[in-house]
What we know:
This is Tetratricopeptide repeat protein. Keywords: Coiled coil. It comes from Propioniciclava soli. This protein is mainly α. The protein has 22 helices and no strands. Helix 1 packs parallel to helix 3 (about 45-65), helix 14 runs antiparallel to helix 15 (about 290-305) and helix 20 (about 375-390) runs parallel beside helix 22 (about 415-420). The N and C termini lie far apart (about 75 Å).
Amino acid sequence: MGSLADEVLPLVRTRAGLHRWGAANSYGYSAHEAVARLSEAAQTQPAAEVLAVTQRALVSALKASARADDSSGIIGAAIYDLLALHAALATTAPPPAARLVAWMIAFQFDGVVDFFTLDPAAYGPALGDRGMALYRANLAEIATALGPPPTPEEEQASMLERATDPSGWEQQVQDRHTGFVLEWNVRRLAVWDRDIEAIIATHARDRRVAAWFEDTATAFDEIGEIDLAIDWARQATFFDRGHQSVKAAQLWCRLLADHRPGKELAARLAVVERWPTATHADDVRHAARDAWPDHRDCVMDTLRQRPGEAVAFALHTLDDAQLAWDLAHDLDLDYSETGVWHTLAHRYEKLDPVAVVPVQTRQILAHLEYADAQHYRAAARGLAHLRTLTRGTNEAENIEALIRELRETHRRRPRLQQEFTRAGLP
C-alpha cells in the first residue's frame, strides 16, 4: 500500500491556497489524475489496499474542497468519482461491516463538508444483511434525536425567530442538513429494498412538481420495473408545460426507445406537438428513420408555430438553406432572432449573394448602435464582406454609398473611422 499511497496521495494533498479559481481548477485536474491512478491500481492490486488509499485520498480531497473556489465543479466531480470507486472497491473487498457503517455515518453527518452524498444502495452488497441492519439502526437513532420535521407553521415561526435572534441559526442549519441526508437515505434504501410502494411514497412525495414524478420513474428504471418507469415518466411529461416536464419527456422517450421501440415514434410526435422545437423535431426524424418523409410535413407544420425553431431545423438539421430562407420570410421571422438570421444569411449568400444584403446591412447598423471598439470592428468587417460579396453586381454602388454615408454620419467617432480604415473601407 505504501507505494500506491506515495504515488497517489501527493496528488490530493496540498496546503496551497485554493480560493483562486485557477488554482482550484489546477488542483481539480490533479485530483482526477489521482482517481485515474487508483482506478488503474484496482485492476492489478488487492482491492482492500486500493480501498484504504482511496479512503485517505477522499479525506484529503474533501479538506481541499472546503477551502476551494470550485465554481467549475472540477474538484467536486473528482470527489464523486472517488466515492464511486470507494463503493465499488468496498463491494469487491468488503471491510468489517461495523467499520464501514461507522465511516458512512461519519461521512454524511460529521464530514468536513456537507455537500456530497453517499448512495447506501451502492454499499448494500458490501454491507450485507447484518451491516444494512446496523446502518438502518444508526439512521433511526439520528432521526429520533432530530425529532419530527417542522410543520409549515413552525418553519414560519422559526424564520421570524431567526430575524430577531440569530443565535440558533447554526444549529437550525445543521438540523436541516441532517433532515435532508435522512430523507435521501430513505429514498435510496427504498430502491435497495425494491419496495414499489416505498419508492412512490419517498420519490413522488406529494406529487406537486414534475421533477418528483421523473425521480420516481428513474428509481423504477434502476430496479428494472420498466412498465412503471415508463408510466411515471409519461405522467411527468404531461404534468405541465414547464422545463421539468420537458426534461422528463426525454426520459420517457429514452425508456421507450430502449424497451418499447415500437412506441417511441408516437411519443416523439406527441412531444414535438407539445413543445415545437428544432431539437424535438430532430428526435422525431431519428425515431422515424426511413419513414421520416411520411411525417415531415406534419412536423414542419407544427414548427411553424415558432418561426425561429422552424428556420433552425431547416437550416441545421435538414441542411436546406433555401427552405430555411423561404420559411424565414413566409413566417416573418423576427429580426430580434439575430443569431438565426446571421447564420441564415451566411449560408444563403452562397445561393444568392445579393438577396442577403438587406439582412447583413441590418446587422451592421445594429452594431453601430453600440459605441465600443468591438462593435465598430464587427461593423467594419461586415461592410468589407459586403463589398466583396456584391462586387460586379448592381448592389456594389449601393454598398459604397452606404459606407460614405456612415463615414459622414459618424465622423465624430474616431475609433470607428479607424476600424473602417483598418478594414480597407474607402
